[in-house]
Amino acid sequence: MVTLKTIAEECGLSSAAVSKALHHLPGVSESNAEMVRDKARELGYYPNAAARTLKTRQSRNVGVLFESGVSNEFFSAILDEIRDRLEDEDYDVTLLSNRHKRGSGYYGHVMRLQCDGVIVVHHIFDPEGMERLLASPTPVVSIDSIHPGHTSVLSENLEGMRDSVHYLAGMGHTHIAFVHGEMGDVTSQRIQGFRQGCAECGIEVPDDYVVAARFQDPAASREATGRLLSLGVPPTCIMFPDDYSYLGGIAELSNRSLTVPDDMSCFGYDGMRLAADLDPALTTYRQDAAGMGRIAVEALLREMGGDGTQDKEVIRVAGRVQLGGTVARID
To answer: What percent of the residues of the chain are helix, what percent strand, and what percent coil, each to the nearest 5?
Structure first.
């Protein structure tokens, strides 16, 4: 176990000087203070009080790590459900944004706040900081990303795309294009589901029918839509990475004097309120955001209340096709 004495011996200082440096008290030169804090981080030292709290799991505080500034309705719904469920269980919730990658990193921040566990809600983080957090004794459950050795909760992306393609094929479409988001666990599963669904329906997918864009980025989807419309044999239906990105598709179609669904059918993903408010309402795949938040909390509570030997698993949460008016039937 790393103690104040350990750090003092490593730095050639007294334990009292080390304590002052770690607590940012006067009496230690700035150079020595920085050396002490660097050595503490290197050795993985954190105050005993925090360590005892983690061991006894008495703080009743859970950290939720999310991408700073995320305003996606899907993730907002997940965060709301996590907060409500944890508060029902008499836990405080501390939001940890990705700005905490500085200094002592995510794990250091978790330790200072004496969090009993952490739920990771978004996957765009500092890799080194995440690796340190995941390697720590703190129970961690992730949402929308997979981390080996930890429980992960994901939307059923493969089956969701497969079901969506089957719906479109049932509407008579055989030329279906897919504009996808950044590569990662989610996109990999969706591409696999898309191709699997097309194969099951006897639909051939030209390579240029699968186009890379970005999540929550209408401009990127507009550019991708333009590329698809310029093909020698354009698709009859375009699937977008999310409902918000579909707005870029609408803009490009309008720019070319094309209408939805008469000239082009469109399909979204997420099931945001936006989808129902559009005219015509967007046909989309509705993810169960609340269900994902609830299941993540249940999984974390089991791990925090266990002995650390609980099985870690990947839990996939099903959604459903949400009908709108953006998919035309082709006879």
So the answer is: 45, 15, 40
Which pLDDT band holds residue 58 (cuts at 50, 70, 90)? low
Mean pLDDT of 150-160: 94
Domains of the chain in sequence order: 4-45 (no CATH), 59-154+291-318 (3.40.50.2300), 157-287 (3.40.50.2300)
Helix (H, G, I), strand (E, B) or coil at 153: strand
Condensed to tens digits (0 to 9), the pLDDT of residues 304-331 reads 887 666 678 999 999 999 999 999 999 8
Upstream peptide bond of 280 is cis (omega within 30 degrees of 0): yes
CA 78 to chain centre: 10
Q: pTM of the predicted model, to two decimals?
A: 0.74
For the stretch 290-324, what's the b/e string if a residue is b when 16 or more beta carbons lie within 10 angstroms of its beta carbon?
Answer: bbbbbbbbebbbebbeeeeeeeeeebbbebebbeb
